[in-house]
Amino acid sequence: MPQYALSEEFRNEFKFKCIDSLIPQPRTGNAVVPVFTGDEDKQAAMSWLTLFTQWALQQGLSADHTLLLASTHIKYSLIYYPQLSTWTEFVQDFFAYYHAVGDSLFIQWYWKRAANIQICWFSYRELKTATNNFSEHKTVGAGKAGVVFKGVLSDDRVVAVKRYTEVVGHSLEDILYEVFIHRSLPKSSNLVKLIGFSSYEQDPLLVYEYVEGGNLEQHLQGIHGKKPTWNERLSIAIDVADAISQLHYNRKFPIYHRDIKSSNILLDDHRQAKLADFGMAAAVSPKKARSYCQTKVKGSRGYTDPHYESTGKLTDTTDVYSFGVVLMELVTSLNAGDPSRSKSFLPDLVMEMYSLERLDEIVDECILAPCPCKQCLKILIEEVIELAILCCHQDPTKRPKISELAEKLRLIQLEQKMRSMEAELRDERRSMEVLDKDRTPRRSHRQ
């Protein structure tokens, strides 16, 4: 299949900030889309729009955005011509060319050919429509950076649309950088998928897959009903460790997330964990990954590695520290930072209670309550806490690799399953013994 490109003259029309980075320059061998001059006859005009549509498909534009850009370009081209009033008729003729009548059939035609688009470039107006003009009733989450809305696209897909609270400075560049990061990620059930974006400079938007269950922080607080069981918490920890491993050992280049926290870990209806929000992620040269990368410090209070905060040296251990804090949250259900505590930061509190052998006082009671063998479970909980403390070691070189943590957590999970099976077998044997005892006939004694 030929590769399509806009001519350099065509590209010059896109004077929006950063847009040129989204539209590659033409290369030798490309099928080049020229500017529309208005001198074309109907057949040549149809050929031009077909060529433009093929380019749009390869670039990942949505159907609506394709129409919007084509219409804008044609209107711009015809502004000095008497045909100004006929440009809309020209676009309508294009539908007839594909045996369609109206926008909806064009969209159907388009999406059948856009199946391979991984990250779509949406128009602002279709995301505005999808969220009912960013209605408060569609709000599903909010933070310092922005608000997340539930939206429904024209093909009935349910999505999460992130709108930034304050658009200043290089916000569009930041969003396009996150698009670049997502395009470099492997397909994974443990990473929240970026579906698309809008590059409207005054209000750039990101579109993610919609995860119904809320975030881990909410689940640990009991906002979504019953708190996670110990088995569910272990599975969540393994899911997150796997997600981080996929970033650190990414095939193209290592990626450090820099903002791993419980509110950035989303859970689906089955409480499978998905790591979200790559706004602070850093793509690192494989050579620098062996040592460190000097960067501007980014992260969330309570989760950020103190060594990284003080030196600006970013390594894979920066994410490992944050993961250690999340492990502590999973065991205790306490917040990572709480000024009302004697030790406001959770790692300091956990390390103190561990050294005093008073972990029982901070372990979430919901974990222990349903367990028949509490002593066995306490041993496993202590193993997880020891891993978490190792993750938060002051010396980054003493912290384990995330792949090692995933493996050790799986061993703990396996040990948990074996202990549960042993407990069930013991209970079953006891039940059988009681049943056999009841069935044994009693002898009568004559005097």
Automatic annotation (TrEMBL):
<keyword id="KW-0067">ATP-binding</keyword>
<dbReference type="GO" id="GO:0007165">
    <property type="term" value="P:signal transduction"/>
</dbReference>
<feature type="domain" description="Protein kinase">
    <location>
        <begin position="134"/>
        <end position="411"/>
    </location>
</feature>
<dbReference type="InterPro" id="IPR008271">
    <property type="entry name" value="Ser/Thr_kinase_AS"/>
</dbReference>
<dbReference type="Pfam" id="PF00069">
    <property type="entry name" value="Pkinase"/>
</dbReference>
<keyword id="KW-0547">Nucleotide-binding</keyword>
<feature type="compositionally biased region" description="Basic and acidic residues">
    <location>
        <begin position="421"/>
        <end position="441"/>
    </location>
</feature>
<dbReference type="InterPro" id="IPR011009">
    <property type="entry name" value="Kinase-like_dom_sf"/>
</dbReference>
<dbReference type="GO" id="GO:0005886">
    <property type="term" value="C:plasma membrane"/>
</dbReference>
<dbReference type="GO" id="GO:0005524">
    <property type="term" value="F:ATP binding"/>
</dbReference>
<feature type="region of interest" description="Disordered">
    <location>
        <begin position="421"/>
        <end position="447"/>
    </location>
</feature>
<protein>
    <recommendedName>
        <fullName>Protein kinase domain-containing protein</fullName>
    </recommendedName>
</protein>
<dbReference type="GO" id="GO:0004672">
    <property type="term" value="F:protein kinase activity"/>
</dbReference>
<dbReference type="InterPro" id="IPR000719">
    <property type="entry name" value="Prot_kinase_dom"/>
</dbReference>
